[in-house]
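Hey, I'm writing a tutorial for new members on how sequence and structure tokens pair up, and I'd like a real worked example in the thread rather than a made-up one. If someone can provide the structure for the chain below, I'll link this post from the tutorial.
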Amino acid sequence: MKQLSLREKVLLGIVGLTCIAVGLSFVFPTESKSSAPQAPGAYADLNEFTTGLAARIAQAELSRLDRAAIEKAAAPWAKDPFVNLRAEVKPPAKTTDQTPAVPQAPQPDKFSYSGYLIMGKRMLAVVNGMEYEVGEHLQDNLQMAVEAISPHQVVLRREDTGLAVVLPLEDE
């Protein structure tokens, strides 16, 4: 068994003394020296203020702007403000302009789809730590381009062979 160094022995001693001090403080409590006891009417001003404030709030009416905001929030919304994570994105149909003799499938383990960003109408995919839009070539592999982006997957297509890789979002 390894022997304790001097530093470890000192730390254990301090911890032990602290535990003993806390234990003794529970066994032999000291009188607390708090401030002088408050007179019964010491908080009368505070009680009067809070009572008056509560009465004014109860009597207040909503402004036109407040009422309009509440009505708009309660009405059906024209557009859902939340992203539909269940929507599937289908890659576009393959165009066979050139057919290679022996196509090499891209290795999906070389790519990592770790997130997406939505900024207005633009959607960006985070692939291998970099943000890409649809149509952009990957920085590490200029033959691969982003073809489609959804919240749960991104489709990459190799331009020379036309083969696609579908990368699911890593959190799923």
